[in-house]
Design brief:
There is one protein chain. This protein has a single domain, classed as TIM Barrel (Alpha-Beta Barrel). It contains 15 helices and eight strands. β1, α2 and β2 form a beta-alpha-beta unit. α2 runs parallel beside α4 and α9 crosses α12. The protein binds erythose-4-phosphate. The site of erythose-4-phosphate has 11 residues, from α9.
Length: 308
Amino acid sequence: MLRPADIHPGAGERRISMEPVNLTEKGKKLAHPAEFAPRIFADTADMDEIKPLKEGGIINGVTTNPTLLKRAGADSWDSADKIMKEIVKYMAPFPVSLELTELEPEKMVVQANKLAAFGDNVVVKVPTGGYRLMDRDPFTGLKMIRRLWEMNIKVNATLIFNTTQAFWAANAGAAYVSPFLGRLADYMYKHDHVERVPGNSLYFMEDHKAPDGGPERTANSAYVSTDGPRKNAGVRLINEIVAVFNNYRIKTEVLAASFRNSVQLMECLLAGADILTVPAPLLMGVADHPLTDEGMKAFFEDSKVFDR
Ligand code: E4P
């Protein structure tokens, strides 16, 4: 587990240079104590999950993707659009990320315009990669991010697995970058050779040769891939991106994504993530602790004596 001492000291400084999240209305006596708290989004396209979380004040945004839409029942573009529109309307003015599925630049722009027209709170998710497998252009994602920024469309640069992707996405104009911390850790668990240093499947590039037998590519920084247990790799990535953004006062928000457990939530809070996007079942448990239950029960029982 990432310990507080592993976290670079600039994380807190960075947060207070960002836009406040919990605002206090003018004239209100009690100021909100967590003005610069991170935003918490629900990572789902299911309205039945979104509604209680928004009503409970637990979330202030939503991220979706085609897999989540399919899971929520979408089986055609009509039904997918209907679900996306409903979420966007329900969550307004909070941000809702909707993902591009087109792979060819001009079609991507048309789709981005369509999604952005669903509401002012839409953020368009652009996969950050170079789309090498399709058009061999190493910059398709980055060019699209810059193009949408020029069109005043907010972008969430998604499917990020290393710090250089995050930096260049920010440099292209992305409002959010989404490092998929759970998938990164899962990948290492699955592909690493245990006899070698942690993170070797990324560091040595054994499972990811460049397409068409080209030269092998560097997949990750040594810090993220090898500097500690495999299960920490995702959170080390968040820590590294926050440190780099802090160095250059980059205002792009670090949206930690692909959570697998509540320990990762805590670690991202330590690391200074700006946004956590969390599956509903994990959010349902954030206020739980067995000792809280036990203590509450005892206090309740003891208070009965006052009723006599
Ligand atoms: C983020 O925006 C993505 O929707 C999400 O976190 C993906 O996570 P997964 O790895 O659980 O699919």
